[in-house]
Specification:
- The protein has two domains: 103 residues, no CATH class; 93 residues, Tetratricopeptide repeat domain (Serine Threonine Protein Phosphatase 5, Tetratricopeptide repeat, Alpha Horseshoe).
- α4 packs antiparallel against α5 and α7 runs antiparallel to α8.
- The protein starts with a helix and ends with a helix.
- 78% of the residues lie in helices and 0% in strands.
- It has ten helices and no strands.
- The chain is an all-alpha fold.
Length: 197
Amino acid sequence: MVVTAIVAIFAIAIVIFGYKKLISEPQMNKAQEMLYEAQYRFEETTPDYSLALNGDESTPGFAEVAEQYGNTPAGNLAKMYAASCALRLGDLDAAEKYINSYKNVKGIPGEMINAMAEGLKGDIAVEKDDYAKAAACFTKAAGISENDFTTPLFLRKAALAYRATGDEAKAQECYKTISEKYPRSVDARDALKQLAE
């Protein structure tokens, strides 16, 4: 019985090791390689969002990376990029589908990516004229990763969304937080201007 248990544990260990070395790692490497090619098109001086999303005969796009390797870190990131491309191309339903399939990542660098993903949900809501949802998403995004870049950016977007809903008090609260907590951010000057009006 003990020998059988040891053999079973050994067999499970071999299967796990084999899966990692023969399937999981090659998939992650391939996904990363494909993601890099799509990112290059996304980040060009004049980006081709359609090409970055859909790819062509020679290079894949974010949609293919997300579909084939969505369970890898690179595939997960491709979902966020795909949502951003679809949003810029005006396909709000596709953008929403991609961003809703994105899974939050762990760690401090991941927090900023998670904040950007939540902010993207807010951008989609703005395009759909759902300003209450947008304000909630931007407020949540501002709290995910506190830093001088994303936090004031999303607080400013939240303020604009709150204004669109008619909630001037919450808009002013967002501007006040920017001016007090993030005075060196690029959004601080606008926040002070809004508070002075």
